[in-house]
Amino acid sequence: MSQAQNRFIADHVIGLPRSGIRDFFELVAAMKDVISLGIGEPDFTTPWHIREAAIYALEKGRTHYTSNLGLIELRREISAYVGRNFGLEYNPNNEVLVTVGVSEAMDIALRAVLNPGDKVLYQDPCFVSYHPTVLLAHGVGVAIKTDAESAFTLKAEEVKKSWEPGCKVLLINLPCNPTGGVAERKELEEIAKFAVEKDMLVISDEIYAEMTYEGEHVSIGIFPGMRERTIFLHGFSKGWAMTGWRLGYACAPAYLTEAMMKVHQYSMMCASIVAQDAGIEALRNGDEAVKTMRQAYQRRRDLVVRRFNEIGLTCHKPNATFYAFPNITSTGLDSTTFSKRLLEEERVAMVPGTAFGKYGEGFVRCSFATGYDQIVEACNRIERFVNNLK
After folding, report:
1. Three-state DSSP class for residue 10
2. Number of domains into which the chain is organized
3. Which structural domain, as residue segments, surrounds residue 67?
4. How far apart are the C-alpha atoms of 156 and 193, rounded to whole Å?
5. What is the DSSP string of 311-352?
6. 153 and 242 within one domain
7. Alpha helix segments (H runs only) across 30-179
8. Which of 111, 132, 217, 229 could hold 212 in an S-S bridge, CB 3.0 to 4.6 Å?
9. CATH of the domain at 142
10. pTM above 0.85, yes or no
């Protein structure tokens, strides 16, 4: 882009990096016979009964705007679901906001609470949009290191070490994309105490909670002093295989929900009514489908983790999500070179760890949200690639 063209672009957008995932997969799109272990999207189709609810909605002529907050029927189902599964109680009338995916929920949460220059603590490695979304809200990102030695668990010690004056928000994703990292209850309780001590707001993205394989999923919002300072984010994309429906939600005390709704009403107005009707059905009758998909992911996880370690790419077993995050430093290649050469030479796509932050170097993200047989073949190709490097 020329200097003359740049004059029309906002400075903070000019400096914004492109998504490392999307850049990499532009290469994939131009190639044939690629097995993709890259995009974080369930390979399952949305369960039929959920799709059927959307079909019925269209047949009934449900094609109009909803309340800015979302359909009250859906908000009631969300309130009940979050209460049952996360131990958090929210009033559906003024503490639940339906959004266009969790990405919008995070965007409006940050835009609603940040003043220019406010600092946001966030995990690293983390999903590619976190730091850019902070920047777009005119905030300053402060990375919290997580590492393979602790299975990328979020540690209270690292949160405290990373904190600096001006940190207004702690943004966490547990379970975490791309690492599958979680936080043990005692660590999360200590982090909660620290958030209260430093008077930080917590934005907690728990979109992968339904894909917890071992242990318990604990929300930071349950600890003393946290309800009034926590924005709980969740949605339908992962657990119910509803990525294309773009349906998420934010739950928070009424004063925070009102602030987010102000941003939401001027940008999105409301989520699709058809998607919202599908969401009602998902929450009412979708538990068995979620369980079936989780069991399939767990079987795939066990396969890829075992194979990576046999190949010599050290990989911890993630307790949740559908991502493995193997260490590729034994090959002598950096993350980007490894990923590009694997794609070119063996037609297997994985994402360089550096797409997820500076602490992702030396790793690649493998999504096992694809067919079991394809994963078997992909692992055979990866093994051949690594052996040819020796």
Report:
1. coil
2. 2
3. 48-285
4. 10
5. HT------SBSSEE--B-GGGT--HHHHHHHHHHHH-EE-EE
6. yes
7. 48-59, 72-86, 101-113, 130-136, 156-162
8. 217
9. 3.40.640.10
10. yes
Secondary structure element (H or E) that encloses residue 211, with its range: none
Distance between CA atoms of residues 184 and 176, nearest Å = 13
Query: Do 268 and 306 lie in a common domain?
Result: no
User: Mind listing the pLDDT tens digit for each residue in 230-254?
Assistant: 999 999 999 999 999 999 999 999 9
pLDDT score of 1: 56
What pLDDT was estimated at residue 276?
98
Q: How much of the chain is helix, strand and coil, in % rounded to 5?
A: 50, 15, 35
For residue 182, pLDDT beyond 80: yes
* Amino acid sitting at position 49: H
Strand partners, 235: 248
The Cα–Cα gap between 162 and 70 comes to 37
What is d(CA 210, CA 367) in angstroms, rounded to the nearest whole number? 16
Find the DSSP H helices in 236-314. 254-267, 273-285, 287-311
The strand pairing partners of 200, in sequence order, are: none
Residue type at position 232 = F
Question: Between residues 25 and 280, which one has the greater pLDDT?
Answer: 280
